[in-house]
Specification:
It is a single chain. The chain is mostly helical and 127 residues long. The protein contains 6 helices and 2 strands. The longest helix is centred in the last third of the chain and has 15 residues. The two termini are 17 Å apart. 12% of the residues are buried.
């Protein structure tokens, strides 16, 4: 079983924008690089720094010191993050089976096929 990242709260608008930048890049980014990627928002450097610091404290991003700057990267893939949110949502319901059934009923045919494939992999890890 993959390691749980801990309880994941929904991200605010700016936090989500910062995470989108990090998820789109294959390498860790500095505050300045994230700010440049969000240039259409005209954010102060300190604002981007504060958001990244907050995300690091929440465990959503990892950071490593490189010289005088921190480099930030996602602690998990976007898919794993969303999966954690779904698990947390299920933890909040009084009837997980009913919640899962309602979720499955809301799926498109292609989504249901993807779920069937994933369930088949769980049942037979050799596939």
């Amino acid at each position: 079983m993959p390691r749980r990242l801990g309880v994941m709260n929904r991200l605010g608008d700016l936090e989500r924008a910062v995470m989108d930048v990090l998820w789109q890049h294959n390498e860790p980014l500095t505050v300045r690089e994230v700010g440049r990627a969000l240039s259409e928002r005209d954010l102060a450097h300190t604002t981007v720094m504060t958001v990244l610091d907050r995300l690091a404290k929440k465990g959503v991003v990892a950071r490593n010191r490189e010289g005088r700057a921190w480099r930030y990267s996602p602690a998990a893939s976007r898919e794993n993050y969303v999966s954690e949110m779904m698990i947390d949502a299920l933890d909040q319901t009084g009837d997980r089976d009913a919640a899962l059934a309602a979720f499955v009923r809301s799926m498109s045919g292609n989504e249901a096929q993807a779920l069937r494939r994933a369930l088949a992999e769980v049942d037979d890890p050799r596939t």
